[in-house]
Amino acid sequence: MIQSATVIGAGSWGTALAAVLSWRGLSVQFWGRDAELMAQIRDTRRNVRYLPDLELPSQITVTSNLDALQPADMLVFVIPSKAMRGTAELVAQSQASSKARVLVSCSKGIELETGHRMSQLIGESIPGVPLAVLTGPNHAEEVARQLATAAVVACADDEIAKAVQACFTLPFFRTYTTDDIIGAEWAGAMKNPYAIASGIAHGLKLGDNTLAALVTRALAEMVRLGVAEGGKVETFYGLSGVGDLVGTCYSTHSRNHRVGVMLGQGRPLDEIIASTRMVAEGVPNTASMHRAAQARGVRMPLLDEINAVLHQGKSPKEGMKALLSRDPRPEAD
């Protein structure tokens, strides 16, 4: 039985999960690298920067000092993908991981340089501890309000999966399990570029027909690459795949969707990134996915155009025109 947890990462999702685990009755430590932010959270019990409407339970220990963390049964990593490797290495050097029974990744991304999933990066830094992944269509803002939510825990060990599942099971939060870590992580990471594309369609005022077509073809591409990477087909039709894809492509909470909307309205990407504190994982993830697709020889025309818009200077209108002018082909191809 897992009785204690340390949440690593003080963004909106990390803040929400710290509350969830505390509401569930676990002893919770909450760590973030920004000393000023963590001191403010400790004093006010609110993360005014990322999730201001949630009041954290008073029993959560809040700190920016890794050395102050006590060993916990479960470490929950909620770190932007670009910072995951470095953060996991720092945690490994502290006593925080010395008695961990499971390491849980809640971050959605693929490392560009290596093509490794987030749980792989954690496992490389803290070897010998079972790994799990929590993923699905989960917006921190709605979890903070205790609105009905479903997620999936992916883990190769069924007993550990059930133990983590129990930690994230509340009256408003329903969690399922799967043994397909690869599929769950690739699905969670891949939906981000397509959320940017959906935002672009919104910003260009292209309508519901366009968005429905985009989401449908996005899922086809996700399945192709995800299966090529070793995931199971059925995973992509579950919460971590189509569930997360729909949730982020249609939601105003999605930072990736918001980035896309601004791109569609004509704002430059560097200006958009500079204007927000939150990380839009779809921007670096697009490059990671594009590299992986090329290495695997997987055809992904929609992702190709997203990558061209984000990283090669192509305009959103040009990208849409390129997609619509492709040669006709069977839908199942």
Would you give an account of this structure?
The protein contains 14 helices and eight strands. Strand 5, helix 4 and strand 6 form a beta-alpha-beta unit. The chain is α/β, with parallel strands linked by helices and about 325 residues long. It folds into two domains: about 5-180, Rossmann fold, CATH 3.40.50; about 185-325, Orthogonal Bundle (N-(1-d-carboxylethyl)-l-norvaline Dehydrogenase, domain 2). The N and C termini lie far apart (about 45 Å). The protein has helices at about 10-25, 35-45, 80-90, 120-125, 140-145, 160-165, 180-205, 205-230, 240-250, 255-265, 270-275, 280-295, 300-310, 315-325; strands at about 5-10, 25-30, 60-65, 75, 100-105, 130-135, 150-155, 175-180.
Chain-wise SSE layout:
Elements: E1 4-8, H1 12-23, E2 27-31, H2 35-44, E3 61-63, E4 74-77, H3 81-92, E5 102-105, H4 118-125, E6 131-135, H5 140-144, E7 149-155, H6 158-167, E8 173-178, H7 181-203, H8 207-228, H9 239-249, H10 255-264, H11 269-274, H12 282-296, H13 301-311, H14 316-324
Parallel strand pairs: 1-2, 1-4, 2-3, 4-5, 5-6, 7-8
Antiparallel strand pairs: 6-7
